[in-house]
Model the fold of this input.
Amino acid sequence: MRCKSCGSSFQDYYYADTCKQCHEHHKAKVVFLGATHPASFSDVVLFASDDEAAGPVPAHKAVLVSRSPVFRAMFENEMEESLSSTIKIGEVSYRTLDAFVNFLYTAEVRLDQQFACALFVMAEKYQVQHLKDYCQKFLVANLNCDNSLLTYTLAHRHNAKQIIDAALIVITDNMDKLTSRKEYAKLKEKDPQLVIEIYEAFLSRHSSFSCVRTVSYSVYDVCESDFA
Amino acid sequence: MRCKSCGSSFQDYYYADTCKQCHEHHKAKVVFLGATHPASFSDVVLFASDDEAAGPVPAHKAVLVSRSPVFRAMFENEMEESLSSTIKIGEVSYRTLDAFVNFLYTAEVRLDQQFACALFVMAEKYQVQHLKDYCQKFLVANLNCDNSLLTYTLAHRHNAKQIIDAALIVITDNMDKLTSRKEYAKLKEKDPQLVIEIYEAFLSRHSSFSCVRTVSYSVYDVCESDFA
Done:
């Protein structure tokens, strides 16, 4: 097996394309590249418009434009923002904005369910695919009966198919519990199409189960007759 | 085995501490963090003093100070440079300076022997440990009879023990060829201490060989006598 990074031959175990040395080298690179501090010689400050009193979040235009095509358009196309060094970011808390900017510098963030949702929305808005993937992975891995309806609603708003599919499995596994919940009643009222999609998924899974059961019975019948 | 990055359990094959998903995640992080372009909204330009006509190398103070304690001292301690946005870098070609700055942004550079030496010197001067390690690894891996004396001399100038040790092995393996070379004559004239160190290493290896040979003979003698 040849290492894709250095070309040396190595024994192929778990990682298909990289030798151990290059793997360690990748980890060191992350530390090296993630060392820039947003506040060091910053040339722009962002304010969370929901939370302006909390203060500015300093950053560098060069970093923002390299991570987000939305910031690129904002700063490079002579829009109002490109001339200013103060940018107001709408519909976001200071905490989320600060973590968002920090992620752009370090590719690191400590998530919980609510925070992952908030950052997923920011990643979608500013088209930061790496953060979107990061939050998506967290949201799918941490889906449970309690958060499934809210996560499903959020995912639909942002067309996140992977989360929608995973949430539908959890929801349709827990229909009896969920239909008595407040979130369910709220969703039925606000967005009936989403509730219909849930029932369609439920019906589809139910039919597949019935098919599997029918097929199992037939196989069983065949076996039975074979042994008769 | 538990993954050091995500805490999930995985089968322990070649990489001791990280699961496959986290390994892939590290690779994606490197791409994400290495995307900033030195020329985008730069706030400082560097000139290679040996090669000023070749033009400026743009950069960001924030990136330079986060990668190099020398740049940190230069820009943060109200030295002359901190007030200026033009910095002259001594004893370096434009090509090397450009590659050096690019490495600070991407952690990537394509090396050959001569270029690795030039960048090793820059890494040493600006205390960029990650680049120093990178060049050192390359220089050790690419040592041969032809470049051993020059690499040895460079390593001595910068106190790079790992390269010195590796070069001494190659040199002492090829003493008969090397002592007739121009580089040898030059080194003898310019830095006789280094030539003496070579001979001391040669003597030491030679004595070890003799010891091994003597010990082998003794063992052989003992075996012989055992079978007698």
About this structure: The domain at 143-228 of chain B is CATH 1.25.40.420 (Serine Threonine Protein Phosphatase 5, Tetratricopeptide repeat). Chain B touches chain A through 36 residues (CB under 8 Å). Strands of chain B lie at 44-48, 57-59, 86-89.
